[in-house]
Amino acid sequence: MSKNFVIKFREKNCKQCGICSYFCPGKVLEQSAGKYPRVVRAEACIGCRLCEMRCPDFAIEVEVETSER
Hints:
Layout: E1 2-9, H1 19-23, E2 29-30, E3 38-39, H2 50-54, E4 60-67
């Protein structure tokens, strides 16, 4: 069984602070000044949820998708 992680954003909650991008160990997220974060390397996500835990506005969520191979 393999795990894939899906990162979801709630843009209405996001204040574009960059904390999620900063703490991501796999550099999964990228963010330019004044822009919302975006997923650029989904395959590098290890599911640590640091982005989710550090977000002060609960604007990001990491979901686990499992699939059998």
